[in-house]
């Protein structure tokens, strides 16, 4: 028996260590948890074996030791083989299997030698157990095992490296996907926000045009009474002059029927009066028509088209409308209206509805201011609103609306052209009048709207339109 | 009887002159016209004792008809002599408030526009008759 017998303790410890190494090498905890669990508790078998060998075993005879040794090595080799076959999918496991093969063959042969019947055993033992060939084989199988193990180790390293790279790649890929998804989500949310903003903007625009329209209607409402009054007056004249003309005609006929004794002087006078009355009827009819036209134009959505407009007439019309509008609401209110219209002012290309709204706003504000000052009860105060036009040598046109009302405090002056800013009590002003006026003059007509004001003394708004 | 008509509408003159042409020709009524409260006061100052009746619009630029009425009552407070002119108010805004205010201020009548000239003529002729009677 030339096989080296390991003393039991190191032998068992070595085998335990080998299996520990094998478990980690093949990454059994992850790849085959159950097998790993079995191998982990291998010591449970080893410990009693060790105890038996150390106590009872010392009295046994050498042959028994030999047998036990062979059985033990054989079993271990078998176990290792089973584990490796089980893990054959792994390249290092296959390599190890190959590396173990010669050693396993010898171990199994030795096991067979001890367990098989004597005759067969003898033949076998003569082949493997004696002499130099066995030693050489043993040396070779160990060397093979070591080299194989090293190769397997290297393969394992490469495998791990590959695995690491794959994992890294996978992680990068995953991260990329995550990023892509994030970008997609962000893009979607940005798109959504943009869409929301667009909708909001559209809603705002719609609201704005509604507000502008309602502001227009509100100012028209304020004017209703003024307009009614302004129409009533010319209509009264039309009826009265028509009526009186009928009387005159009756008188004329009477006179005519007298024949020769007719008073020709009276006839001539009656005819002149009739002629004059017809002119007056036409005049007042046109006056009423022009007011109705103005009202319609004011309520109609602005065409935005410029048309040659007589600014003197426009200013006069709106001054009267604003005045009577306020009078209708406040019966005791009275103001002196002064007009200085430049006779040289030719018609100017403006959007009449828009400019009318500006004038109306300025007049309404002026009347409001003088009314407020009047309420203070200063003795000798005469509310006065003045409008003047001027055709400058440069070609520019200037319209000034001046009042001797309460004036505008400095703190308010900064804000008066801001939308929704109003000093009037709730419900009396939309706060859009001056802001719209400002837009109409500056953006719509490339002009300027400025003001001069002194608190307690009055305000003057100056519209300048390029010629 | 002298009547002062106060109205800012210029054509009121032509209208009154034609409406009352027979009475004017007959000398029963004589009309003078003023286009504002201020003008009316000036006229009154110049022709104080002549004017028996004032017909005034309420809504006029500057001095309103009610203000004019107040001034007249202030300047001519006492009953005769000379008799203070009667003031009739004419307005398109025939609201209760103005009417009450006018009557409080001493208006003798409150007429609404459009003027019913038939009724006005009757009133004026009646007044003219009364005016002429004592003298």
TrEMBL record, chain A:
SMART domains found in the cross-reference section: HATPase_c (SM00387), HisKA (SM00388)
Annotated keywords: Coiled coil, Kinase, Membrane, Phosphoprotein, Transferase, Transmembrane, Transmembrane helix
GO molecular function: phosphorelay sensor kinase activity
Catalytically driven reaction(s): ATP + protein L-histidine = ADP + protein N-phospho-L-histidine
Coiled-coil segments on the chain, per record: 165-210
Positions of transmembrane segments: 6-26, 38-60, 66-85, 97-116, 136-153
The keyword Transferase belongs to this UniProt entry's keyword annotation: yes
Residue ranges annotated for the Histidine kinase domain, each copy included: 226-467
InterPro entries: HATPase_C_sf, HATPase_dom, His_kinase_dom, HisK_dim/P_dom, HisK_dim/P_sf, Sig_transdc_His_kin-like_C
Its EC number(s): 2.7.13.3
Keyword hit for DNA-binding: no
Enzymatic class: transferase
Gene3D superfamilies: 1.10.287.130, Histidine kinase-like ATPase, C-terminal domain (3.30.565.10)
Pfam families given in the database record: HATPase_c (PF02518), HisKA (PF00512)
Entry protein name: histidine kinase
From TrEMBL, chain B:
Entry annotated with the keyword Phosphoprotein: yes
Protein source organism: Hymenobacter psychrophilus
Superkingdom, natural source: Bacteria
Keyword Secreted: no
InterPro entries found in the cross-reference section: Bact_response_regulator (IPR050595), CheY-like_superfamily (IPR011006), Sig_transdc_resp-reg_receiver (IPR001789)
4-aspartylphosphate carried by residues: 57
This protein's UniProt keywords: Phosphoprotein
PANTHER family: RESPONSE REGULATORY DOMAIN-CONTAINING PROTEIN, STRESS RESPONSE REGULATOR PROTEIN 1
Domain Response regulatory residues, every copy: 2-128
GO terms classed as biological process: phosphorelay signal transduction system
Protein name, UniProt field: Response regulator receiver domain-containing protein
Lineage: Bacteria, Pseudomonadati, Bacteroidota, Cytophagia, Cytophagales
């Amino acid at each position: 028996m030339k096989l080296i017998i390991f003393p039991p303790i190191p032998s068992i410890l070595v085998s335990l260590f080998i299996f520990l190494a094998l478990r980690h090498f093949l990454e059994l905890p992850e790849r085959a948890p159950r097998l790993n669990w079995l191998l982990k508790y291998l010591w449970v078998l080893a410990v009693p074996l060790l105890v038996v060998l150390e106590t009872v075993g010392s009295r046994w005879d050498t042959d028994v030791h030999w047998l036990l040794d062979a059985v033990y090595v054989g079993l271990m080799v078998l176990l290792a083989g089973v584990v490796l076959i089980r893990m054959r999918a792994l390249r290092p496991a296959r390599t190890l299997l190959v590396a173990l093969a010669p050693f396993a063959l010898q171990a199994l042969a030795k096991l067979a030698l001890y367990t098989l019947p004597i005759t067969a055993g003898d033949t076998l033992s003569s082949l493997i157990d004696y002499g130099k060939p066995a030693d050489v084989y043993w040396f070779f199988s160990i060397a093979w095992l070591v080299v194989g193990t090293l190769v397997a180790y290297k393969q394992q390293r490469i495998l791990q490296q590959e695995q690491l790279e794959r994992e890294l790649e996978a992680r990068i890929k995953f991260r990329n996907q995550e990023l892509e998804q994030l970008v997609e989500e962000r893009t979607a949310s940005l798109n959504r926000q943009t869409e929301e903003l667009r909708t909001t903007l559209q809603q705002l625009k719609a609201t704005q045009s509604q507000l502008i329209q309602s502001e227009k209607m509100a100012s028209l409402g304020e004017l209703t009474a003024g307009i009614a009054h302004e129409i009533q007056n010319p209509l009264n004249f039309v009826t009265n002059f028509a009526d009186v003309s009928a009387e005159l005609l009756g008188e004329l006929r009477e006179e005519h029927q007298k024949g020769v004794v007719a008073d020709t002087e009276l006839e001539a006078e009656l005819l002149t009066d009739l002629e004059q009355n017809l002119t007056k009827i036409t005049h007042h009819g046109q006056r009423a028509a022009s007011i109705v036209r103005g009202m319609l134009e004011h309520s109609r959505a602005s065409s935005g088209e410029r048309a040659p407009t007589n600014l003197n007439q426009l200013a006069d019309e709106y001054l009267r409308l604003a005045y009577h509008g306020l009078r209708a609401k406040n019966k005791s209110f009275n103001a002196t209206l002064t007009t200085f219209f430049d006779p040289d002012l030719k018609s100017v290309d403006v959007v009449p509805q828009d400019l009318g709204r500006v004038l109306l706003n300025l007049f309404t504000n002026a009347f409001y201011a003088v009314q407020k000052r009047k309420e203070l009860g200063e003795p000798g105060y005469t509310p006065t609103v003045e409008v003047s036009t001027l055709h400058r040598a440069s070609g520019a046109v200037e319209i000034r609306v001046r009042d001797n009302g309460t004036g505008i405090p400095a703190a308010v002056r900064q804000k008066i052209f801001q939308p929704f800013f109003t000093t009037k009590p709730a419900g009396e002003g939309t706060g859009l009048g001056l802001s719209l006026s400002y837009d109409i003059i500056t953006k719509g007509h490339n002009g300027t709207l400025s003001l001069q004001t002194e608190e307690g003394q009055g305000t003057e708004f100056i519209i300048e339109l390029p010629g | 009887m002298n009547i002062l008509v106060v109205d800012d509408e210029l054509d009121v003159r032509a209208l009154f002159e034609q409406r009352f042409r027979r009475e004017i020709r007959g000398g029963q009524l004589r009309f003078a016209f003023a286009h504002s409260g201020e003008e009316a006061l000036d006229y009154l100052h110049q022709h104080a004792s002549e004017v028996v009746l004032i017909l005034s619009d309420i809504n006029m630029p500057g001095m309103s008809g009610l203000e004019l009425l107040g001034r007249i009552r202030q300047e001519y407070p006492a009953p005769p002599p000379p008799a203070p002119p009667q003031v009739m108010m004419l307005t398109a805004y025939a609201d209760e408030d103005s009417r009450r205010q006018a009557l409080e201020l001493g208006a003798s009548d409150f007429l609404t526009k459009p003027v019913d000239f038939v009724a006005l003529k009757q009133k004026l002729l009646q007044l003219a008759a009364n005016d002429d009677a004592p003298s």
